Amino acid sequence: MDDNRSTDAAAPAPAAELLGETSPVVGRVIGTEDSTPLEFWVGLLPDEVLQLDDVVIVDRVLPGGEIIRISGIVHQVRARHEGTRFDSDVHLVAEGVLPAQVSEAAQVLTTRFEPETFVPPLPGTDARRAMGTSRDQALLFDTMGARLPVGTSRDGCPVFANFEFIDGRRGAHVNISGISGVATKTTYATFLLHAMFNTGVLGTDALNTHVLVFNVKGEDLLHLDRANTLLPDNEHERYRQLGLPVGPFRSVGFWAPPRPGPSGVPDVASRTTDVRSYFWTLEEFCRDSLLPFLFADAEDDRQQYTMVVHNVAHRLQRDAVAVGDGAVRIGDDTVRTFDELCRVVEARVTDDMTMAEWAGRSIGAGTINAFVRRLFGAERHIGRLVRSDITDPAAHRIDPTANQVSVVDLHNLNDRAKRFVVGTTIRRAFDDKERSGQSRPLLFLVLDELNKYAPRTGDSPIKEILLDVAERGRSLGIILIGAQQTASEVERRIVANSAIRVVGRLDPAEADRPEYGFLPPILRRRATILKPGTMIVSQPELPIPLVVQFPFPAWATRAEEVVASVPSPADVFDGLPR
Questions:
Q1: pTM of the full predicted structure?
Q2: What angle do CA 507, 510, 511 make, to 5 degrees?
Q3: How far apart are the first and last CA of the chain?
Q4: Residue 82 half-sphere exposure, CB side, CA atoms within 13 Å?
Q5: What would the pLDDT profile of 420-431 be if each residue is shown by its tens digit?
Q6: Predicted confidence (pLDDT) at residue 8 exceeds the cutoff of 80
Q7: Which domains does the chain have, with CATH numbers?
């Protein structure tokens, strides 16, 4: 027994020599704290410093001569006086009256054993700062088949995620949580897209991969194709470290709702060119049974008139006959506007002769009246989105395949209209992928405010389609990048099916929710003080989430950041812009 202990205790030095270790020694494993296979403490040498998120490696030689490499991440750092008993002793030590020594120690959470023999490091073992190849091995970057840069560590080194857990090969979906305006959720989502399109992880699928982004706040995402004039010069180096180009997205299409009225002009203020308006024709509305998406919030789900909604949707699908330009004829009535459709439906569900066929049998007058009130309440917001009074309606149909990135603006719509646009657009994309029967090329959906569209309680058509995306999207090649302020208010199955989870700045009460159980306690506390541009990334291969910083966006995120456009030679005629 004694011989075995002496052999192990002497192991660290020869282990480092056998492996040719060149990383500097920063301390030794201490013996005053328990050392376990999951965590251990390192006492720092006098002139060395370890900070949070540094990577440390220690070696141990087993009695049979096998070398075990134990790697980990610094999770906590402490400093204290040794040789004192009371808090007031610090003054005596400072005055030189009481002898004491300052001790610094770092707690390390293990990330990897190579080979996988789960033994603790021994007290007295040299601890080294992982650098270069040893750092990549400690963080399992060397095992990743497709490395997607997700940011840099505090020391400026790149941090990667395994893209196979995003694109559906081994897992799918990304979920981002954080306080609105501080956590930079949407900005980080666009950074991931930029990295995805510019690092080669998509391989030959890069040209055919498409992204559908829903812009729910302001007009921030309407300038992704324009360079950011406020990009600091030092950010160029951060992009270089990540192997990414500095510049905007190259292929972007922009869609916005039409302004109220007959013009069909996109309802945007900060961008007047290259934006197309979108709407649905009455023919599509009836044929595709889109009426339930007008009644898609939790309040509607609890009401009895949802039975009327589905009965009416079925009758519209069966009885509406296309008459050209997206208009329909229902019986003797030709319908070209949503207001006209509402009046036709009202007449059918309130007339004694047609009530049973349209509203359903044994449906009371109160339930029917409640349905009619909600229908006409939606007309004010939906009228500009469902219409057949504009020529060439096909030019106003959102096409995610027309550009590499398609931005669908929602910010000028009220919540009911937003739900309608999100639900119908995703369902159309989902149905198209199902009909194709192929998972490639991929379609990414970027949606903020998931708690509005897939709340934890209640059911709705939008929630059902988002659940389908979360649970079956991987096999269909539909990947959801979802974001929300509070993961605790989002349907559990959607969050649980996200292989990559990202956390920005969190509210302290939210950070204590069980939905963030994947974060160790220290990281939960750190999440409440994170600054914009800093995120915590959790991925399946790595047992400990990593804190990363991502570069300032090289693409404009608001009108003030847009570079003044200069006409190209092709756009100039006789010295004047075309």
A1: 0.88
A2: 85
A3: 89
A4: 9
A5: 999 999 999 999
A6: no
A7: 2-139 (no CATH), 165-227+242-270+398-546 (3.40.50.300), 282-382 (no CATH)
